[in-house]
Design brief:
This protein has no helices and 11 strands. By secondary structure, it is mainly beta. The strands form 2 sheets. Strands 2, 4, 5, 6, 9, 10 and 11 form a 7-stranded mixed β-sheet that branches.
Length: about 110
């Protein structure tokens, strides 16, 4: 079983930035396809960003140009850099190991003045 730990959430003002981190256990992390998803109250969970083992990326339409997903295989960690945050980005953000559909516990991001 892969263990996933997310961190970096919090409260930020509109226009601000946050960086989320997700560390996953396992000796073959470099082969994992990793993704970030989010779920706002009353809404369905949606894909935010995805990165493959060879660092190909894909983004949800609502975050393109503002968010960047990256990975550091030496640290078994994937990052989500979030810039120009908007109130509608407020949600619980979840990290996922796509290969085996393992999910983290989620981290709250709140964008508010």
């Amino acid at each position: 079983q892969v263990q996933i730990v997310e961190s970096g959430g919090g409260l930020v003002q509109p226009g601000g930035s946050l960086r989320l981190s997700c560390t996953a256990s396992g000796s073959i992390f470099s082969m994992y396809t990793m993704s970030w998803h989010r779920q706002a109250p009353g809404k369905e969970r949606e894909l935010v960003a995805l990165i493959t083992g060879d660092s190909s990326t894909n983004y949800g339409d609502s975050v393109k140009g503002r968010f960047t997903i990256s990975r550091d295989n030496a640290k078994n960690t994937v990052y989500l850099q979030m810039n120009s945050l908007k109130p509608e980005d407020t949600a619980v953000y979840y990290c996922r190991v796509v290969n085996w559909n393992y999910w983290g516990q989620g981290t709250q991001v709140t964008v508010s003045s």
